[in-house]
Each structure stands twice: as C-alpha cells, then as structure tokens.
Amino acid sequence: KVEDILNEYVLTEETMEKIKLTIEEQMKFANSKDEETRKKSDLFWECTYVTGLMSGKENGQYLGLDLGGTNFRVVGTVFTNGKADIKTKYYNLPTELFTGPCSGIFDHIAESIEKFIKEENISSDTSIPIGFSFSFPSIQKSLKHSVLVTWTKSFKCPDGLGQDPVVMLEEAIHRRGGLSVPVDVIARISDTTGTLMAGNYLDHNCRIGLILGSGSNACFVEKVEKYNKLETDIGSDKVVVNTEWGALGDNGCLDFIKTELDKELDLNSNHVHSFSFEKLFSGLYLGELVRLVLLKLTKDGCLFDGQTTDNLQKPYFFTTDFVSDIESERIVRVLEKLELDTVATADDIAIIRKTCAILSQRGAYVVAIALAVLLKHMNLPEVTIGIDGSLYEFHPKYHDHILDVLTKLVKDTKVTNAYYA
C-alpha cells in the first residue's frame, strides 16, 4: 500500500521526457511573435530591460531593496573599480501587512530605508540610486516601471494589482516627508534578475538566475535576435529575460503529473489554480504536500498504527524545513514537534524518510528538466547558474538531484550550479 501511494510521485523516464517536451512547447509559445500564440503559455517571458552584465569597472554608492518574503532587506553597496563593499540589514514585515492595504507594505519599506540610512550613517549631497527587487509577477514597461499582476506566496493584499510598485514606493517616501538623504529609484527588478547579476559579479559565466525558496522563478541572458517580444530597439545585443515560470502549467499542460493530493493542495492554497509549477516543489508547498501524503498513509493504516495527532492534521504545520531536517538525518526533532516521537516505530521512520526523499526528488527533477530546456535554448559552451533561496540552501540533496538530471539531459554545455545568498 505504501508503494502504491508513493509510486505516484516517482517520475519515470517516459514522464520526464513528456515534461521536457511540454516545457519546450510552452517556451516556444511564450517567445512567439504572434500575440495569440503567446496566450497559449502561462510563462511571462518578460523583457527586464537589463541589457548589460558586470564589467568589473563599476563605481559609486547604491542602495538595494529586496521584497519577496517575510523579511524585507536593505543593502548598501559602495563600488570601487568593480569591487563591492556591502552592508545588509533585515527588517521583519509584520504579518498583518500581508493581507492589509498594500500602502502598509510600502510605508514599512520607506521606514526601513530611513532606519538603514541612520544606522549606517549614510550621507550624500546627490541622490543615491536605488534598485528595487520586487519579487511578484509584473509586466515590465521599462527598467524602472512595471505593473503588478498578482500577489504570490503569503501576500494577499486586497489592492495594488495594476499599479506600479516603484510609484507606490515613491508615494510612500513622499508621505513620510522624504528621507534624510536624497534617493532616486532607478530600477525595478525581480529577485531572480538580482540573483543573476550577483552571480555575474562573482562569475562572468553566470547567465541564469534561479530562485528556489518559498517560490521559484528563473531568468536568463538572451540574444536580442532570438527574443521575439521586443517592440523597440533597446540598443544592445543581449537582454535578461524573466520567465516567471512559477505559473507554468496553470493552463493544464502539466496536469498529467498531478496526483489527487497535488490537486487538494492547490484547492486549499491562497492562490487556487495559480502557480501550478511552484506547487510541485517550492518551499511554501513541499512540506504541506509531504504532510498530506503522510496523513493519507496514516489514515490508510500504513503509519503510526493509524493514529494521527492534531499537529499532523494542521495545514502547513509540516514545513519544508521539516523535510530538509528529515533528509539531513534529523528526524527526531520533527517527530517531537509532531508529538509522534513516542509513537513512531522503526518502520514508521523508514516510511517518513522515503516519503520525503521521493517528493523532494520529484520536485528537484521537475526544476532540473526546466533548466535543461533553458540551457539547450541558450546553446552556450559554458553556463553558471546563480541560485538563491532557502529550499536550495538548506535541503541537503537538491543540488545533487538537479545536477543528476542536467548531466543526463544537457551534453553540450558545461554547467555549474552556484549558491549566491
């Protein structure tokens, strides 16, 4: 019975090939010159208007803002001949901001910038350029301006959709009467683009940025001649393209790999029928999916002699941190939190470990297949993938799982995975 349940999450060679072909088709649709064809794909395939990579000659003082999860981050950077001196501070976002008017979020950001300026004794007679990493699906209109399409992850504000995040930030700064030093928000990017650029700073072969945290996304450096969505000349032979692949499969193209529990997870999520790709593996959902499988195994009499606990029945109590702990041979602490440490037998522990291993591997393989399609599209002799996100950082086997698939599927490109926090 255990094998029957868990085998639904094991990707066969045939299924992996079907996933690859599906993603290839969706990427072709997204990059089509025909607007109607592009609608066949849920990939944004957006132009970021980032047209240059790191030269090693950068100079000046900059501020970076990073909003995408429960913590907001302010980064102060001083470049001297391409070398960066970096200071970073985190400012916790109160949970009530996630569901309140989005003005509360931007007021908090403005307040945090001012705190950072004072704490770091920053002074300037001229405006300090700000880069704003705003990690929610947006339609990019220029390097600075974009339109928010939807909130994701834990964010569910009732407003803000259709608005420009940079304008909302500028309005928040204006509401507080400005900041103690002049600033100028000159760029809005996703955290994925930021990861690519951070990777390129350290390794000039970095051409892909990948987020594997609460959510997931990828961007890559594209030859302008191969990018079919440009309507104006951007004065460069390359541009960073933001795939926004978290929503891949919202149109049903990946339904063939979804189990009944995948569908149950979706129906009880904050964003039903959205971000289908993320829900197969990302940090916000992996733990919950494992919990649903363990609960099914328990109810079917395969675990804990059919006896469950309140914590195992709580949605999202079983976090992806638990999965990483179990995959790192730290299962006792998880059982204690589940109040199952005095109940679990050796067989129970073996089943829990196998469940985490299989679902983790499925998720990593799906990500790796998408990366393989992207790498083949780029067709370069050598590519470093810059990666950020807690799932990749703390899960002990994600790196190896991804490389296993890339080694098998990508023969003509030397691929290096590198983590950049």
From TrEMBL:
Pathway per the UniProt entry: Carbohydrate degradation; glycolysis; D-glyceraldehyde 3-phosphate and glycerone phosphate from D-glucose: step 1/4; Carbohydrate metabolism; hexose metabolism
Domain Hexokinase N-terminal, first and last residues per copy: 2-201
EC number: 2.7.1.-
SUPFAM superfamilies hit by this protein: Actin-like ATPase domain
All copies of domain Hexokinase C-terminal, residue ranges: 207-413
Gene Ontology process terms (BP): glucose metabolic process; glycolytic process; intracellular glucose homeostasis
EC class name: transferase
Record keywords: ATP-binding, Glycolysis, Kinase, Nucleotide-binding, Transferase
GO cellular component: cytosol; mitochondrion
InterPro entries listed in its UniProt record: ATPase_NBD, Hexokinase, Hexokinase_C, Hexokinase_N
Gene Ontology molecular function, alphabetical: ATP binding; D-glucose binding; fructokinase activity; glucokinase activity
Reactions catalysed: a D-hexose + ATP = a D-hexose 6-phosphate + ADP + H(+); D-glucose + ATP = D-glucose 6-phosphate + ADP + H(+); D-fructose + ATP = D-fructose 6-phosphate + ADP + H(+)
Family of this protein: Belongs to the hexokinase family.
Protein name as catalogued: Phosphotransferase
Organism per entry: Pinctada imbricata (Atlantic pearl-oyster)
